[in-house]
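Our platform keeps sequence and structure together, in a single record for each protein. Such a record has a labelled line for the sequence and another for the backbone structure tokens. Nothing more is needed to write down the fold, since each code stands for a local backbone conformation. For reference, a complete record is included directly beneath this paragraph:
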Amino acid sequence: MPDLQLLIFLVILLALIFDFINGFHDTANAIATSVSTRAIHPQHAIIMAAVLNFFGAMYSTGVAKTIGSDIVKSASHVDEHVLIAALFGAIVWNIITWKFAMPSSSSHALIGGVIGAVIMSSSGVDGLNFEGIGKIILSLILSPVVGMVSGCIIMLFLFRFFGHFRPTSINGKFKKMQILSAATMAFSHGSNDAQKSMGIITLALLSGGYIDVFEVPTYVKVLAATAMACGTAVGGWRIIKTIGGKIFKLQPISGFSADLNSSIIIFGATLLHLPVSTTHVVSGSIMGVGAAKRINAVRWGVAQQMVAAWILTIPCTAIMGALTYKFIILFV
């Protein structure tokens, strides 16, 4: 069996790979609307998103503490094998969904992987903190619904105030404003998503005895923020195409509304220390913005595929995490 130091290093490496993949998988969240409306050049959008993802990731550690302490009852219920299995399951799922251009949730994937690996370990079901898991899952479920409703409200509000202007005039002004809304979206994305791998790395350090209390070390924050920024710089063009054009044909005013709404919800969740799926919040916002124009403007078939991925992610990654843990114990 590999020694503890090697296993800790492997957990950190896999967490950073997960963060990198999360970055390019979720790049669409921050820039798809502004790229699809041609408010900003794609390369400039990616650079902006990468930089602001980094600074967003350095903002706080509240979500990291939720991930690290609310899924399992204590650090004693997990070891490096559990975390390796959980991360591996989440990474594989993210790659599969990216391959099929399916906007799925990295948050769901990671949580499902941890749940499956813990259940398969010696801790079993008793190692899970069901109250904490319930809170996390509730935030993951409610956030896209809130995004859809509030996105519709914001869009209706803008229609009321700007509906009498010529479309070309309004869209020209909102193209410039989209750059600002995309920037806030990128920062909020980093503030929530990068903390998930921070939480896993810190949990591994705590369970291995390298730290005494659950406090995210500065070097862990820098590593996770850098990995996400690098992943964002690579870009996830497959998912950008789905988010930016297949759900609803965006105009600058609707793209601005979707980004503004999403960034408020995601950053609000960060302040409440709640992990949310940025992919699903953005998708919900776009659906709400489209429905404000007219219900049949939204391509609900694409929405159904996304809901299917939303439902399947946690059970699928739980199975992957459980099988990976079993393989590690039997053969490694």
